Amino acid sequence: MGSIDGRRWGISPRMSRALRRGVLLLVPLLALAGVSPSAQPDEGPGGGLRVLLVGDSLTHGSSGDWTWRYRLWQHLQRTSVEEIDLVGTRDDLWDSAGHVPGSQDYADPHFDRDHAAAWGQQLKDYPIGPVVAETRPDVVVVVLGTNDLTWGRITPAQLWEEWTELLADARAAAPGVDVVVSTVPLETIPGATDWNAMLRRDADGLTAGDERVALADAAGFVAADHTWDGVHLNAGGELHLAAAVADALHALGVGGPALRPLPEVPLGPAPPVLSVEVEPTDPTEALLEWEAAPGATSHTVWVRPSGEPWTEVGTTSDTRWTFTGLRIGRSYVFRVQSAKGTALSPKFSVPLRLVPRPPPPGTVDDVRADPAGNAITVTWSAVPTATAYVVEARAPGVRHDPGARRVVRVGEPEEAAPAQARRTTELAGLAAGRDYDVTVQAVATGVGGPASEPLSVTAPGERPGPAVARLRVRRDGTWVARWQGVAGASAYDVRLGLRGGAAREVRDLHGRRWVSTRALRPHERLRVRVRARNGDLAGAWGPVMRGRRPPLAGPVAP
Q1: What tens digit of pLDDT does each residue of 398-409 get?
Q2: What is the pTM of this model?
Q3: 106, 239, 241, 413: least surrounded by Cβ within 10 Å?
């Protein structure tokens, strides 16, 4: 039987090793038992195929990141026929605000977060033996070398020696383990080009029997497109590196290849949550504050005054921005856009609208309400900051009556504060004889102050004269009452009654006639009187008008 090549047949490393090691022994045993030979992968302590992700800050990630581990996990969940278990000694991010490990502020924490990467880690001192012995992986993915070439200042040849030693220690801790090694993504680092060339040329030669090495080639990585600070991965860089690792794992029989072209994903952190308030002592000044999203390093502030487009006003690393020179009464909308380094989020905060208002004016003093003619003349002292006044007359306890309330606005919101010592206006259209509570309220650019104490005043007017009605009863028993209009009358009342019965009144008739709604019976007598009213002032009842329905005609002789 020839050797079984997992890379050729797309078989996972665990299954490939099981076949290579045990198929010659299993075939005769299974044949004796009458069972067809089939290899089942060892589920291991955690279940599923165990993948250990080893690396530095590129793998560790910092607060607010999705991480390339997240992108790889999503890919394997879609394409792997086996259950995948990411293993490691930690599950955190680097806290970019506190500059310590331990953050759990993932952009999306719902994935297998186990890993064995550390911010600032170098390949030369990575404890691969103890980590592999503790996690018992089937595949080790190594993304190291960036810090060795920069901080460690070692040559590519020295780094190769460190890499082969790390590989040997991993195999000693877990014989048969497969390894994926990644190129250094950022080839602008001194020595990275030569190091990557060595990996591309010699990585396949590190395969030893059933212990395979696959290369994750991150070629095409561009700092301007794939990092937020020239080194660390933005969302696009996460996809780029995850795709390179996915292709290498596919070469080992784990999952499918990365789909290309890679999708476009939004960069930058989540949008912040805003609040805005006006400076109490200066309404033309507003303070915008927000709660920064994890990982955000700066924020761009935008404003849109009413009738104008959005304008970018500045960028800050703080979580507040002060606006000055706002116009009283004008509408402004604010929003903030977060960034992590150069990774500017395309999403904005929920916009907040603000209309700057001045402090409310004081109470109006010296209010007078004098009945005169058919109106009430109201006067009051000016309030220094007021730009308008609202004068109101309200009839207490009266509802659903147009004459129960009158409101007059004096001045306009945008006018300058009045200079005269006293203001005046006239309240007309009130119901004559009705009691009203009159108040005055000062307004400063749309902000009303407290209303003055109400003044009780009776609306002026004269009682109208009597109304004389005419009554006509038709032969069919229907009837109609008519009367002439009375000078100064705003409505009429009709009192009607049948002989021997109680009288009934109908109020607020604005026409000059009343038509029956029920026909009189034969011989039934009706009494009708009318009076005019001016608001609540009623005139005298007019004379009583009487009518009777005639008897029905007798039968016609043949």
Answers
A1: 877 778 889 999
A2: 0.66
A3: 413
